[in-house]
Amino acid sequence: MKAIVVAGARPNFVKVAPLIRELRATGMEVDLVHTGQHYDWAMSESLFVDLGLPAPDANLEVGSGSHAIQTAKVMVAFEDWLDRHDADQVVTVGDVNSTLACTLVAVKRGLPVAHVEAGLRSFDRTMPEEINRVIVDAVSSWLFTPSSDADENLISEGIPRERIYQVGNIMVDSLLASLERAERSAICSDLGLSAPYGLVTLHRPALVDDPERFGPVLEALHDISSLVPLVFPVHPRTRANLTALGLGTPASGLTLIDPIGYLDFLKLESGASLVLTDSGGIQEETTVLGVPCLTLRENTERPVTIREGTNRLVGFDPDAIRAAAVDALDGTSNPQRPPLWDGHTAERIAKVLSRAEVEAEARSAVGVAMPADRTASIGA
Ligand code: UD1
């Protein structure tokens, strides 16, 4: 019995690292397939090094493209790879195009799919990731969710309860396992940065592909950087748009840098007085770190980070962003750990999948086909 774990883009690597470790610890045979959606050293290999991830067993090298081209290229390449390799189940994480493409290929071959980080919904179908989430969850056999709101979303979409396993947040496994090493990062001294400072990450098309939104948001960042220095590791998509807008030159308090490694990023994030972001994972990490987070979006698929954490949705209005930054710099926040965000999520997933493997082997030994619905219950 063999599990194929799929990863394609930067946030996926953070999620598969603890998963592969724990699946292999149960004795399961696991191959890691990297689709190549992200391919730059800073967006891909550097995370493998920082997370102690073994080199992938395959790299499909699909690269960039429109949604249709990228999704189609992953589908063709993954199907071809599966034609030549054994597989009994496929494990996907997150909501990127690689997650969708590999899920579709697997289920159409009759391979059961486990989706980690299932059930998150922004209820905004203009967001490409929301389309990916809804489709992946509809056809996956095991839905591993990070929080109760995700369970409720799946149930309201008619997903049978026996497919849903609330296991906690897998990014927190990587975060807690890496904090000590991140503390030793020299990034702050390399950048000449000392507290207090703020950290910025922006890469969503809804913001950075729209100059009417992105221009005023950058002006707000410039204003905030007169209160507290801001460091902004710039995603390749954002860099391209900054260049196109002629906005690539740093203002005095706003330092633009190239994308940085996972440990360097954690160091900056954990020491920041304020984070401004449109990332999903960073809303979760700041909650666990107790760092005030302003999310420059109109919705979030991670409401638990607002209800129980340090996150605040501020939208795109520059005045609202400035005011929220002033509030956040004046206030205090405490680290929060929503239920099961405890660093043991991968263990819970491995327990379910390895038990399913034993059951499937027993069934195939007596000639019974493996059902799509799993009934194994999880002892957290
Ligand atoms: C993708 C995910 C998004 C995730 C983000 C994390 C989808 C639909 N989106 O968005 O959910 O939050 O990754 O970063 O899957 N590029 C490079 N080098 C790289 C990778 C990308 O230069 O290593 C550039 C290319 O010009 C590419 C652009 O970035 O066209 C966008 O990359 P892509 O993977 O299509 O989407 P992201 O914006 O990174």
Task: Give an overview in words.
This protein has about 375 residues and is of the alpha/beta class. The chain has two domains: about 190 residues, Rossmann fold (3-Layer(aba) Sandwich), CATH 3.40.50; about 150 residues, 3-Layer(aba) Sandwich (Rossmann fold). It is built from 16 helices and 13 strands. The strands form two sheets. A seven-stranded parallel β-sheet has the order 3-2-1-4-5-6-7, sandwiched between helices. The chain is globular. The site of uridine-diphosphate-N-acetylglucosamine (UD1) has 20 residues, from helix 1, helix 5 and helix 11. Uridine-diphosphate-N-acetylglucosamine binds next to helix 1, helix 5 and helix 11.
Key features?
Rossmann fold; 16 helices; binds uridine-diphosphate-N-acetylglucosamine; disordered C terminus; alpha/beta; 2 domains; 380 residues; 7-stranded parallel β-sheet
